[in-house]
UniProtKB/TrEMBL annotation:
Pfam families associated with the record: HTH_1, LysR_substrate
Domain HTH lysR-type: 6-63
Name of the protein described by the UniProt record: HTH-type transcriptional regulator TrpI
Family: Belongs to the LysR transcriptional regulatory family.
Gene for this chain: trpI
Signal peptide extent: none
Length: 301
């Protein structure tokens, strides 16, 4: 029993009343009713078996016993407030680190970074290239922006932004040799792909009703690239037909650098914002939700 303590809520009500000299002022500061503070003070009187306050006109003053309690409680709550303020300031001043694959960073996010910084200056955004193939697993990231297929793991919060669409693209000269009404003419040319998205060509071929065995044979003779940037440059150079997320080649399609003879198809993947457990202060909803809403708005342009 010697180590027992009264409820912290009662001590908090006592500290505020002692500091402000008024139950009403303490209630206002704590955002509770006058009666709630009075009940907390009475519970402390009962706990200690002595009166901690005495009336003085319209206010209250500490008794001898109250002064003894205030000497320790006041200092303790002051240090608590200081510790909370320092942590809150550190969290708010720390940058929000967004990780994403290099191709997504270079071909979609970087052209929009200036607008993002301007519209969300309080985020203090720092962007890094993902160092893992598993979204949400980069230890130094506040969030990860990446394409991925469900189901999602239980230890992260996933904000789905848009479904992934992929398309087969080629240079205008090579695309002119393809029949938009016959996707099988694809196999008259070299297939280009990246090792990081092996499921892309099968998804596309299946949606087009093509034989997967024929696709596998074509891929065996095709050309792989480590990064999507190199893949796209190879397609622009006319080295073959590449497969890529439509989001990352939209500028090339608009400018005419690339052509998608057969349009695009939707895959099971989604572009998502991956967040660690929201118990992590650096990914508190107050910081991540504005970014998610900004991304949705930008993707909807």
């Amino acid at each position: 029993m010697h180590n027992s303590m009264p409820p912290l809520s009662a001590l908090r009500a006592f500290e505020a009343t002692a500091r402000l000299g008024s139950v009403t002022a303490a209630a206002d500061e704590l955002s509770v009713t006058h009666g709630a503070v009075s009940r907390q003070l009475k519970s402390l009187d009962a706990y200690f078996g002595v009166a901690l306050f005495a009336k003085a006109g319209r206010g209250l003053v500490l008794t001898h016993h109250g002064e003894r309690l205030q000497s320790g409680v006041g200092d303790a709550f002051f240090r608590l407030r200081e510790s909370c303020a320092v942590l809150k300031r550190d969290v708010e001043e720390a940058p929000f680190t967004l990780a994403c694959p290099g191709s997504l960073l270079a071909r979609w996010l970087i052209p929009r970074l200036d607008r993002l910084h301007h519209e969300l200056p309080e985020l203090k955004l720092k962007v890094v290239v993902s160092d893992t193939e598993q979204p949400g697993k980069q230890s130094d990231a506040s969030a990860t922006l990446a394409f991925s297929e469900p189901p999602w793991p239980d230890d992260v919060d996933v904000v789905e932004l848009i479904p992934e669409q992929i398309c087969a693209v080629a240079s205008p000269q090579l695309a002119a040799q393809c029949d938009p009404a016959n996707p099988a003419t694809l196999f008259d040319h070299t297939l280009l792909y990246t090792a990081s998205r092996p499921q892309a060509w099968p998804h596309w071929a299946n949606a087009q009703g093509l034989e997967l065995t024929q696709l596998e044979e074509a891929l065996d003779k095709g050309q792989g690239f480590e990064h999507l940037y190199y893949l796209m440059e190879a397609a622009v150079a006319g080295l073959g037909v590449a497969i890529a997320p439509k989001l990352l080649v939209e500028d090339d399609l608009r400018s005419g650098r690339l052509v998608a003879p057969w349009g695009s198809i939707e895959t099971p993947a989604r572009l998502c914002l991956w967040l660690p457990s929201q118990t992590d202060l650096l990914t508190h909803p107050r910081r991540s939700e504005p970014l998610a809403e900004w991304l949705k708005g930008e993707l909807g342009r």
